[in-house]
Amino acid sequence: MKSFRSPRGCIKALGIIVFASLLCAISAPLMAQAPSPTELEGESWRRTILETPRPKSGCFTATYPETEWREVLCKTPPHNLFLPKRGGAIRTQTLGGTGPDYSAVVTGFITEAEGSFASVTGVTSECAVQCPNQICPTNPTCTSAPANQYSLQLNSKPFTTETCSGSPNQAECQGWEQFVYLYSGDGYIQYWLLNYGPAGTACPPPRGASCALGGVWSDGWCPFSFTTGGEVYCVVNSMKSAPAPSEPITSLGQLILTGAVAGVAGATNDSITVTVGGTPYTASGNSYFPDLGSRWQEVEFNVFGDGGGDQAVFNSGSTIIVTTSVASGTASGPTADEQSFTGESNNLTLVPTYCPYGGASPKIEFMESNAASPAATCFSSGLQAFTTLASFNGTDGANPYTGLVQATNGDLYGTTVSGGANGDGTVFKVTTSSALTTLYSFCSQSGCTDGANPYAGLVHPTSGYLYGTTFSGGANGDGTVFKITPSGTLTTLYSFCAQSSCTDGASPDALVQAANGYLYGTTSYGGAADGGGTVFRITPTGELTTLYRFCAQSGCTDGAYPPGGLVQATNGNLYGTTFSGADGGGTVFRITPSGALTTLYSFCSQANCADGEEPAAGLVQATNGNLYGTTFYGGANGDGTVFKITPTGALTTLYSFCSLSACTDGKYTYAGLVQATNGDLYGTTYSGGAGTGGTVFKITPSGTLTTLYSFCAQSTCTDGALPTAALIQATNGNLYGTTGYGGGAGGGTVFSLYVGLGPFVETLPTSGKVGAAVKILGTNLTGATGVTFNSAATVFTVVSPSLITTTVPAGATTGKVQVVTPGGTLSSNVPFRVP
User: Fold this and answer.
1) Residue 515 DSSP label
2) Which helix H or strand E contains 50, and what residues bound it?
3) Neighbouring-strand partners of residue 121
4) Is 201 helix (H, G, I), strand (E, B) or coil?
5) Which residues contact 111 (CB under 8 A, 6 or more apart)?
6) Using CA of residue 756, residue 185, residue 235, residue 109, what is the dihedral sign?
7) What gap in Å lies between CA 416 and CA 733, rounded to an integer?
8) Which helix (H) or strand (E) segment is 323 a member of?
9) Of 54, 223, 274, 481, which sees the most CB atoms within 10 A?
10) Which contiguous run of DSSP H or E holds residue 364?
């Protein structure tokens, strides 16, 4: 656990200068500093400062919102050789040995190129593995290899150059320029003359004075040969290296590498800029290739080994989205070639799809991954990437019918309805890098008193425990409420059907924690004489109160068989659905925390159930205040709907599934919706889609639907099939979900989908009075320097990379929570409500 504390010196906080001598006497965590710029503000500023001329050759940096470069001491470039492909040939078999790399191609000439990573998922470690003669091991491991040793390279394609004018081999001599960021914190340029001449040929002047010491130097050209007596290549480093920070591989997503060349608009210098967490570090100097600006038409960018032909080996489950941007005087999107120019590599598999985009910053995007079942799709908003994180095989669980929850440790937790040690379901944990752990197998106690067959997911209240339900088992065989620690210690809190005739309910569904700290849920059966289910409240210690019994009204007009959990709206009331009742098509209801129920809408109120029939999941409240949900049947085509309903009961059908030929838009949805940080709603269908195994879709609050992924797109449905659970958006911005079937062993999967959304923070709880304790969940929170509640600063403690603890500060009002991190400012996914 680490508390944020002041650096030495003085700071300005809330308009008062506080000196270090005073700060040193303060033992509490430091008050947050002023918020940093938003992502859009920061990027706009970065582009502006990059276009600001450097005052002279040298090294510079700037911080937001400065408008001029500040000179800093340069570093001396290291002597690492970043090799061309052995023999000088352009490499067409690269990255992981499984396919080619993508380089961006323009019709004009590139004046500036930039490489970055739109998404980095599941990356926890990397090492550099040696590849003798650029032949890497088939299954490289990091057992004895150095960690966090990698390079980013922005490489030109080999080109004809006037610098080869003195070469005795002018027909084959080519120039090659590399802009390099090395893990050690160096940003510099390496220049090559490929195939300069036969053995014994002297490199052109200026010649390096230290070449005999080996490696590459900055004072002039040094000769290099792959073999003794082989063809002579010449290599030289730029005179200066930008003094960027050294960053571990887990910071890959915070790095941007930019290269600009001489010979354009009168520029006489080449420059390299490394941006780390929004702060640029640049170095510029004379170019060894002054004609590159009129020759450069193709560029590659990627993460590679640290030189010498080494390979960067990532942990299993790693996925990156690579972005290569170009400036060439046109807004047209570049094309791409399947080729690479460097002798270094990585162990990620290239997914054979690239997405070109035009505009102010023309670019290509592509995906690399060593996770299972990777797939990439181009949308107008950017590349979208799908991977399978885990496939269940029965012994580790089977049929995850429910969704996931992200805990404060950053991992994802869920349940399977069957499988495990006893065949009656499990609680599992999966990391975003694909590591699956079975935490508990149900029916481990005699008579299954610990429960069996969890059909509902978990909830993660502020207590630190995970809470859930089982559909059957328990002391009476009709289900349980349980709590479990993140490490797997389970406690049964309540067994249903403890009362005569099961008036307390039977077969419970999902839970939700309300603002009052209690857990609320529904049971599918039990309750009144007709057994239509219940709404209940339970304390975190297991004291249960039945709030409502369905089918209490004649003809069950109040509904029956609530299939999903509840949602607490901002007005304090709870909302849910029933699968049946009233007109036979189910209902939407509202219930107060004390148990007063109102039926808001009865489905099948319209002819042919055009308004939907039989909702099989709960609701979500969007930021516009309306509630959104799905029905399994009904709608214009009888195959289910997405609907919107106001808190007072005015319903609008937004979309009817199977509206496209062959139901490629999906049909039948068991799952509810989630609103992501872009304001759109995301969900799944159980069937239909291009592969007939169901879909992932996006729908706007006004009803425009886009199918994002169709399951069973891969042979034998290794990517999963028949999803029944709602998605979640984790704090890294990605969507995560489960499929009940398919995968490598047919027992279902956990999957991730990158849709171009950035990281954010989530608060537990989402409301509280001044002084209330709050947990803030996020990604890469280490080094956070500020936390604000709608601009009101607070003290905080960085507990881990995924957790900050704090309290609601005096002066806080309802609004977004923001956390200032080294990678930028993160905002909460929903406004924090201060009563």
Assistant:
1) T
2) helix 39-50
3) 319
4) coil
5) 260, 261, 264, 265, 293, 296, 327, 328, 329
6) positive
7) 24
8) strand 319-327
9) 274
10) strand 363-369
Kindly state the average pLDDT of the residues 652-658.
Answer: 98
Burial of residue 601, with CB atoms counted within 10 A of its CB: 0-12 exposed, 13-18 middle, 19 or more buried:
buried
**pLDDT band, very low/low/confident/very high, at 95 (cuts 50, 70, 90):** very low
Decide which of 792 and 32 is more confident.
792
Tokens 């496209």 -> residue: 660
**Selection from 177, 210, 176 nearest residue 195 by Cα:** 176
Does residue 100 contact residue 299 with C-beta atoms inside 8 Å?
A: no
Sorted by sequence, the CB contacts under 8 Å of residue 84 that are 6+ apart come out as 158, 176, 192, 194, 233, 341, 342, 343
- CB neighbour burial string for 514-540, b if at least 16 within 10 angstroms, e if fewer: beeebbbbbbbbbbbeebbbbbbbbeb
- By residue count, the chain amounts to 835
Q: What would the two tokens of residue 491 be?
A: 């406690």
59 DSSP assignment? E
The two three-digit tokens of residue 312, written as one number: 């960067």
Averaged pLDDT for residues 207-223 = 93
* Cα–Cα distance list, 325 to 102, 111, 815 (Å): 12, 11, 35
Name the DSSP letter for residue 377. Answer: E
pLDDT value, residue 2: 32
Q: Is the peptide bond before 65 cis (omega within 30 degrees of 0)?
A: yes
pLDDT at residue 101 tops 70: yes
The sign one gets for the Cα dihedral 183, 186, 192, 198 is negative
Q: Is the torsion defined by CA of 210, 211, 213, 216 positive or negative? A: positive
pLDDT average, residue stretch 474-486:
97
Of 667, 626, 664, residue with least CA distance to 643: 626
Cα three-residue angle 612-614-618, rounded to 5 degrees: 100
